[in-house]
C-alpha cells in the first residue's frame, strides 16, 4: 500500500513504516471526527446509611451516659453542683428543662383527661408553654440582675446553672404522676403550691445568690432581689392578660376541680 505522504510502498499495516502517516486516511479521518465517548465520573462512595445510624446511636448513647452521671451528681449535692456549673453543662441543663416540661405536660394531661370538657391544647399544652415562657423570663431576669452587679457571666452560664437546679424537680414531677395514678388528687393542690413557691419565688433568687462570690456591689443585693420580685410579678400579670396560663393559674384550676 502506497503512503499518501511520501509514496513509500508499504507491504501492509495502518501506518507508513517510513514517515508514520496513516495509510487508511478515510478510517483515520473517521476516527478523528468521532465524538469522544463520555465517561461518567466515578462517584465517591458515600458513607453507608448503617454507619451513619451507628454514629448517631453512639452520640446519643454518650449523651445519655453523660447526663445520667450529671443527674446522679446533682441529686446527691444539688446546690454544690449547681454553684460550680458553667456553660460546659449547658446541654445537660437544657435536657433537664426538656424532661421537666415533658413530665409536666404528661402530668396535666393525666389530671384533666377525665373532665368532659377536656381539650389537650387548652388544659395541657397551653399551660406547659406558659410555664416554659415564665421560666425563660425568670432566667433572663437573673441574667440582667447579674449584669447589674457586674458579674462576668453569659446567658449559657445562667441557664446551665438554672437547669441544674431544676434537676431534683424531675423527681417531684414523677411523684406527681404517681399521685395521679394512685388517685390521690387531693394531695396535688399542696404539691403544686410547693412547686409554685420553689420554682417562682425561691430558685431564681438562689440562682442569683449562687454567683454572689463574683458580685461587685454596684447595686445592693436587697434592691436587686426586690427588682427580681417586681419583674416576676409583672411577667405573671402580663401572661395572665395574654390568656397564657402559668403555674399559679393551674393551681387555681386545681382548686376548682378537686
What does this structure look like?
It is a single chain. The chain is mainly α. 68% of the residues lie in helices and 0% in strands. The N and C termini lie far apart (113 Å).
Write the layout of secondary structure elements.
Blueprint lengths: L24 H9 L15 H28 L1 H6 L6 H23 L7 H29 L6 H27 L6 H14 L1 H7 L11 H21 L5 H11 L1
Helix pairs in contact: 4-5, 4-6, 5-6, 5-8, 5-9, 6-7, 7-10
Number of strands: 0
How far the N terminus sits from the C terminus, by CA atoms, comes to 113 Å
Q: What is the succession of H and E elements?
A: HHHHHHHHHH
Task: List unreliable stretches of 5+ residues.
Answer: 26-32
Number of domains: 1
* C-alpha geometry: elongated
Rg calc: 36 Å
Structural class: mainly alpha
Portion in beta strands: under 5%
Largest beta sheet, briefly?
none
Number of helices: 10
Question: Which key terms come to mind for this protein?
Answer:
258 residues, mainly alpha
Quick structural summary:
This protein is mainly α.
